[in-house]
Amino acid sequence: MVTYMEKVIEFMHRFLEDESEFTDEELDLYKIALTHSTYGSQGNQRLAFLGDAVLKQIIREHLYLKNPYDCKGILTMASSRIESNNNYSKIAINLNVFNYMRVGNPALKSHNITANAEALEALFGAVYLTKGLQTAKRLAEKYILNNNL
Amino acid sequence: MVTYMEKVIEFMHRFLEDESEFTDEELDLYKIALTHSTYGSQGNQRLAFLGDAVLKQIIREHLYLKNPYDCKGILTMASSRIESNNNYSKIAINLNVFNYMRVGNPALKSHNITANAEALEALFGAVYLTKGLQTAKRLAEKYILNNNL
After folding, report:
1. For this structure, is B118 an active site residue?
2. Partner-chain residue, chosen from B49, B54, B75, that has the shortest CB–CB distance to A46
3. How far apart are CA A51 and CA A57, in angstroms?
4. Which member of B42, B46, B60 has the closest CB to residue A49?
5. Global pTM?
6. Could you report the predicted ipTM of this complex, rounded to two decimals?
7. Record's InterPro entries (chains A, B) (predicted)?
8. Extents of the domains making up chain A
9. Which of A140, A41, A38 is nearest to A98 (CA)?
10. What pLDDT does B148 receive?
11. How far apart are CA A126 and CA A123, in angstroms?
């Protein structure tokens, strides 16, 4: 029988592309990132609040540097499309995130847009706090930017 | 007669609390950060696009870490208040930013909220690109967070 912690470790090894051992603090944050707000307490909501901004900064820096002649309006349109819940949700569904989440409401569907988008944001919040901005950038390049530009 | 570049250097030395010499690349970015969109080309708009997100991440990380028991709703309200154009504009006016700006439209008032807020964002975009996230954090602590929490 696979424990929930083993599922979290399996997912995070794949997501981070890093098979090294995690500290207890790292695992606690990853578990929270994969916990829906219906499970109890507030789940991944605080981490999603942080990760939303981490992703916004990474995406905007990427667009700013890659498109030196685009005006603010064009850059804003591009970033809004990439940062949308719809887009984040598609990426989370591709990563099969929901299958690794703790969810309190059994009626919540595995393709729920908000739950998937918030989990992706929360994962980036947790990665930023545990591994730093450079790792968050590398993963954003891989999962978000290369698929959208 | 003080040249415009000397004014930019004077402002940036004070803003960064750093009297060291700037590279040409740094000075170019600082000049753009202090250029209103009415002056020609698009002025500081692209840097404001970036700096807006840099500040959002710094503010959210600060709120997340300092308030471990606040829910997402409370954190979001706090960050929205700090990130508002009104607040950024007040901070820019306190720093007398407008006096160091190149502005094309002579009717633009020195207390214009959008012009001041965007200049502050653009300055943080330029600081992030030239000095890195840690310096941007230190300056945000000084000018934005300590005045608002």
Report:
1. no
2. B75
3. 10
4. B60
5. 0.95
6. 0.94
7. RNase_III_dom (IPR000999), RNase_III_sf (IPR036389)
8. 4-145
9. A38
10. 56
11. 5
